[in-house]
Amino acid sequence: MTGLGDPIPVAVGLPSVERAIVLFSRFPGVGRKSAQRMIHHLLRQEKEGVVQLLHALQALSDRVGHCTVCHNLAEDERCWICQDTRREAALLCVVEESMDLLAMERAGLFRGYYHVLGGRLNPLGGMGPEQLNLATLEARLQTGQTTELIIATNPTVEGEATAHYVAQMASSLVPRITRLAYGMPMGGELEYLDESTLYQALAGRRNF
Ligand SMILES: [Zn+2]
User: Are strands 65-66 and 73-74 parallel, antiparallel or unpaired?
Assistant: First the structure.
């Protein structure tokens, strides 16, 4: 007998802090250490900063949903793109996620409308065609308004499989189906390109 009794579990942190760290570390690219840093940053601030963050998150939860037409993020029934009547109704661009739509918009070249699939086919990860926003895409195409469908899924194995699936589904509904070209990144140099990018750039070459 040592007289010390059972060891008392040592509290490594405050439960509220620990809970917040666990939640923050679920963000993509954020590990436990970064989450810890964020929480401690918040706690060092005036309460006002935390309350503002709280309100912003509350607004996300209350107000942001999905566009009933294209499934982009929206605060109204239709997103800001679907509400913009100056766009070309004949052009429809299919993307995987709202983030991809934003990237296309930043490029500033595309003036048509979008359809956000909400992911990409990945049968092993539980993403089948039923999990994607394909029924609404088909319904949109059936109106006959689209003359070109641009498939802008990512150049990954799953993105490619998704592109093929969409193209097949749309083949009898749209006169023209195109896919974003693969190519060399701007500012890139041939010798640093991986083979598959170079192969795709060569296969997708066009007249000068
Ligand atoms: Zn929309």
Answer: antiparallel
User: Residue 206 phi/psi, 5° resolution?
Assistant: -135, 170
Q: Report pLDDT digits (tens) over 11-63.
A: 567 899 999 999 999 999 999 999 999 999 998 988 888 899 999 999 999 99
What's the 182 CA to ligand 1 centre distance in angstroms? 26
User: Ligand 1 centroid vs 66 CA: distance in angstroms?
Assistant: 8
- Compute, in angstroms, the gap from residue 179 CA to the centroid of ligand 1: 21
Q: Topology of domain 14-49, per CATH?
A: Helicase, Ruva Protein; domain 3 (1.10.8)
Q: Alpha carbon of 189 to those of 183, 185, 201, 206: distances in Å?
A: 12, 8, 12, 19
Instruction: Please tell me the distance between residue 92's alpha carbon and the centre of ligand 1 in angstroms.
Output: 11
**Which part of the chain has CATH 1.10.8.420?**
14-49
CA 88 to ligand 1 center in whole angstroms: 14
Tokens of 114: 């979008």
Q: How many angstroms does the Cα of residue 98 sit away from the middle of ligand 1?
A: 10
Distance 63 CA to ligand 1 centre (A): 15
Question: Where are the domain boundaries for CATH 3.40.1360.10 in the chain?
Answer: 86-179
Distance (Å, whole) CA 109 – CA 87 = 12
Architecture per CATH, domain 86-179, reads as: 3-Layer(aba) Sandwich (3.40)
The Å distance, Cα 155 to ligand 1 centre, comes to: 24
Q: What is the pLDDT of residues 139-177, one digit of tens each?
A: 999 999 999 999 999 989 999 999 999 999 999 999 999
* pTM: predicted TM-score of the whole model, two decimal places: 0.82
